[in-house]
Amino acid sequence: MIRVLLADDDALVRTGLRVLLEAEPDLEVAGEAATGSDAVAAARRHRPDVVLMDVRMPGRDGVWATRRIVAGPSPRPRVLVLTTFDLDQIVEDALAAGADGFLLKRSSPEQLIAGIRVVHAGDALVAPEVTRRLLTTLAGRRAPERHRLALPDPLTEREVDVLRALAEGWSNAEIAAALSVSIETVRTHVKRVLTKLGVRDRTQAVVWAFRTGFLDRED
């Protein structure tokens, strides 16, 4: 069973999410929270596998809560941000805080259920329409920082392919199919990418790629 904590200040939203999740044989609701502070406390108390995190909540917001949950003791819950707001800065802040995924509340129930399973499996997830717009926005706002692109241990051509796929929100299985390799091989490539970039997880690798303009390079 995948145990999910619901963090949203709207009681009706939490009720709807509970009904949706508990209809799935492999999902159960571990607890609920209405503020960022409550979400952090509930994550420590209930030790869920995944936190569905709203961004705009009274007092401490979801970005603040995400940052503290991610920095907590291991194994930590995976954090899937679920919000009505698709503003670029909110997405960037959530990912920089360590969120493992970002979906809009207008996503379909099927997309939400699949998203929970994806982040629980260790993959990163950002709604495709958000990924494309965020990439465009960041690429236009920042010139590539060449000193950050000069990695001590450069990425191989295959590792660059994997990083591009991560930025597109692809799962390990999708990357494996596209590159005609095994999922274990993909996991090895992802681990090497994280090590070379000096980041803690695949979501942070995507943030690095956005912020440096790496994905716009032709060389």
Automatic annotation (TrEMBL):
Keyword Transmembrane appears in the UniProt entry: no
Pfam families cross-referenced by the UniProt entry: GerE (PF00196), Response_reg (PF00072)
Response regulatory domain: residues covered: 3-120
Keyword flag Oxidoreductase: no
Domain HTH luxR-type: start-end pairs: 148-213
Modified residues (4-aspartylphosphate): 54
InterPro entries: CheY-like_superfamily, NreC/VraR/RcsB-like_REC, Sig_transdc_resp-reg_C-effctor, Sig_transdc_resp-reg_receiver, Tscrpt_reg_LuxR_C, WalR-like
Entry-linked Gene3D superfamilies: 3.40.50.2300
Record keywords: DNA-binding, Phosphoprotein, Transcription, Transcription regulation
GO molecular-function terms, A-Z: DNA binding
GO BP: phosphorelay signal transduction system; regulation of DNA-templated transcription
PANTHER family, sorted: TRANSCRIPTIONAL REGULATORY PROTEIN NARL-RELATED, TWO-COMPONENT RESPONSE REGULATOR
Listed name of the protein: Response regulator containing a CheY-like receiver domain and an HTH DNA-binding domain
